[in-house]
Amino acid sequence: MAREGTRTGSRGGTGRKVAARCGLAARGVLYVLVGVLAIRVAFGAGGEEADRTGALQELADKPLGGFLVWTVGIGLVCMMLWRLSEVVFGAAGPDGDKASKRLLAAARTVFYGVVAFSVLSFAAGSGGGRSGDEQSRDVTSKVLDLPGGPWWVGVIGAGIAIGGIVIAVRAALRKFRKHLAMDQASDRTRKAVVFLGVAGGVARGAVFAAAGAFIVHAAVSFDPSQAKGVDDTLRAFAETPAGPWLLVLVAAGLMLFGLFSWAMARWPRV
Questions:
Q1: Which of 29, 108, 223, 264 has the fewest Cβ atoms nearer than 10 Å?
Q2: Predicted TM-score of the model (pTM)
Q3: Average pLDDT value for residue range 146-164
Q4: Beta pairing partners, 268
Q5: What are the Cα distances from residue 201, in Å, to 47, 167, 195?
């Protein structure tokens, strides 16, 4: 069985590794930029949306901005294709052929497909008009109007919140180490990458958990305005008793997760 898992994992190995590296690098760009924008929000130094749309606009405003946005979009398509390859051929590792692993890979394929479509739409000039907060409220409103809508919204919100908690816990337990091929890296480098993975993963999980909780609140109150996208979710951290410093902490964590994504792109185990 171990031999079969190795053979399956090696199919298309070079192509999968290239796709993984491109996708992880693109993901890292978005998280670093969202973190930077969130820190600006915390100190009142910027009015940009601290979400994917704001990050793409930040890129677009730079020299060769259009090219950079297209590059990120193509990178996320590669991310989708990598996850799709895990559905078809199985993920790396001895348990990569398990049904649960393939199901998780399928969910990630859909997620990154949606994200890639959003980024490419922005690059083409047809997807940058509405913020993530507006989209979140609109989708929540439409689902609430369906038969059993509040239940559907509540289940979705609970799923996102639980997913965020799982992300944070797995990061704290350093489960990501099995996805890194760092045997040849120095001990100091490995420790630095582990720090990035823990701090960044916990921050990322906290954002997902908070966003899911807001969606559950929207379902319970039957009020779509309570649903929040990434920008409003991040701003909510600044409204806690800890004030803007909690937002700074979370924003720094998102930047660290972006750096961790680049480290994964450098040492992927696929």
A1: 223
A2: 0.88
A3: 94
A4: 180
A5: 26, 6, 10
